[in-house]
Fold this protein.
Amino acid sequence: MPELQTPQTAGKTIWIIVAAVIGAAVIAALIWWQFAQAPEAPVPPAAAPEVEAPAPPPAPPAVAPEEDTTTSIQQDLETVDLGDLEQEFKQIDADAGEL
């Protein structure tokens, strides 16, 4: 059989309910305050539509300087002194044979 509430127990129940509501309100206010203090995430700028850059004007025809012609390069290669390569290779072969 359920107990009947006396005026004293009914008063205690009301105070417990009031305290619970106030506690819930305080907790909700603290949570709201925490979210209000958090820095907002930066919003990325809206993607601008890509605009194709105009094509650059055609380059003027390249004129090779005189020192960059095939014949001048060939002459430069022929004037390079490599020394006696056969003698150098013989020396390397002799050193490798000693190992």
In short: The radius of gyration is 47 Å. The mean pLDDT is 80.
